Each structure stands twice: as structure tokens, then as C-alpha cells.
Amino acid sequence: MSQFDTLFDRKAGNARKWADSVLAKKFGLTPNAIPMDLADLDFPVAPPIHDAVMARAAVSDYSYTYIPDAFNETVIAWNARRFGLELEADWLKLSYGTVPTLHYIVQAFTAVGESVLINTPAYDPFAEAVEHNQRQLITSPLKLENDRYVFDFEDLADKMARPDVKVFILCSPQNPSGRVWTAEELEQVGDLCLQHHVLLVSDEIHRDIVYPGVHFTSIWQACPAIRDHSILCLSPNKAFNLGGLKTSYVVIPDAGIRDRLAQQFAANSITSPNSFAIPALIAAYTKCDAWLDEMVAYVVAA
Length: 302
Ligand SMILES: Cc1ncc(COP(=O)(O)O)c(C=O)c1O
What we know:
The chain is of the alpha/beta class.
């Protein structure tokens, strides 16, 4: 019997996905419907994460925190070990979730009335980050070819050539299609952004959950030249079910882009992390490789 066979009552943790009131309001569903909309795990967190949070809870101090060096070291090691990505500590910025971060990025790198490009179908908050900030949403629909979504490169090039389009938010792997983009596809996307001077924002938070036999490539590996014209959005939230801790990070090698976003973080008062966030992230990134591999294999086999 696998640890993932145990039934787990998500309602006990106030999981939004399983809340009858939310399901009724959002989808008109009756109580006890089985929700399939929200991308979180219906498994308990990995035991080392539970232990780290419990140990932190035992310390009777939930006041303001700071970002210890161990955060940078752990993030750098995880990215190198799992993805072959060599990051530097200076490039990392902790934030309060990828969706809020997309809002700050839109605020920082576009003016009201300018445009942000996304692919459709899209995870709803991509459009919301644009529209909540009174920017124009420009969409480039993915094409369905042989039951697989692919980029429409001609359309992407046309839209990026528009002078009002300043930012492209890429979802890689893509939610909702599940596509893990190939290195060739990503190279073309990167080249187009460079050619049209469009800032690339690559949301790669689903990269940890990729089926065996499929290789995830970061856009930085597929198109190294885009690195200094881009922002990577990463977090342990999808792989380890930590969305409620409201913690994520961005990686920005270019000092100018990084400083601009830092100003926007200051404008939104992004300061110390949640008391439980750093212990949970460190436990996830140092003690849970085997748990993650087992979880993905279990989901694939189901
Ligand atoms: C592509 C994508 N980005 C971001 C998020 C949410 O990230 P966070 O919880 O860190 O705001 C999700 C959640 O499903 C997602 O699918």
C-alpha cells in the first residue's frame, strides 16, 4: 500500500477547492460535488514538511521574519539538482505567490493602456493580472494539432510586433493544456521576444510535475540569450501543495529588470516572509525528492 492511498479529508484544512459554499457560488454545484478546477494536491503534505511546520509552530514567535541565507542556498541547490539551472543568490527575490507577482510585473513593466500578451486557453489569473491593472489583454490562441496544443508562431510574431505589446507571459508547462514545450518551441518563443523587444515572463511553477519520459526544459536552457530579458517565476507550491503559505520567488539575472521589480515590490510592501514559509520550502527542497518522485509516479499510474 502506498502512502498516497490513504483518504484525506481536505475540508478539515478549509481547502477552497472542496468548500461547498465556494463551489455553489462559483459553479452552481450542489454539496458534495467532486471539484476538478483547482490545481492543488489531494494528498497530505510530505512528512518532512509537516514536521518542519510543526517544529516552527512549537516556537512561540510568529512575528516578523527575514530571509536567511539558507533560503538562497536551498533554492540554488534544488534548481541545479533537479533542473540543471545554475542560479546566483543575487538573482532571487522572494514574493507572496506567483499570481500576486504577475500583478506586480504588469504594474512595473507596462503603463496603463499598454498591452500584455498571453496564450489561450489560459489560467484565468493571467488575464486578471492584466485587466485588474487597466492594461490591454492581447491573446494568441494555441492551435490544436493532432490532439495537442501548439503555438501559432505566425500569430505570436504578429502580436509581438505591435508597439503596444510590452510583456509576454508564457506558461511552461502550460496550464490548462498540460503541454510541456519542446526546446525547439521555446527557442522560437525566446527568439521572437528578443526580436520584438518584448519582456518574457516565464511561469514555470508546474515544472516539478512532469510525467516520466517527458523532459522539462526551461526557456533559459532553450534560448540562453533571453535570460537577460526575462523573469522566471518559480515556487514549491504546485509540487508540494504549499499554496496557502503564499510564498514564491522570481529569478532575474538582469540588474535593471531586477531593480525595477524590486521598486514595485517596495510599492506593494513585499517584506518579510510568512513564519512557516521558509521552513516549509527548505524541508521541501532538501528532504522531499523521493516523496515528489513517488507522488508523480502514483498520479501517472492512477
Ligand atoms: C500557471 C499557474 N501560475 C500560478 C499559479 C498560482 O500560483 P500561486 O499560488 O503561487 O499564486 C497557478 C495555480 O494553479 C498556476 O496554474
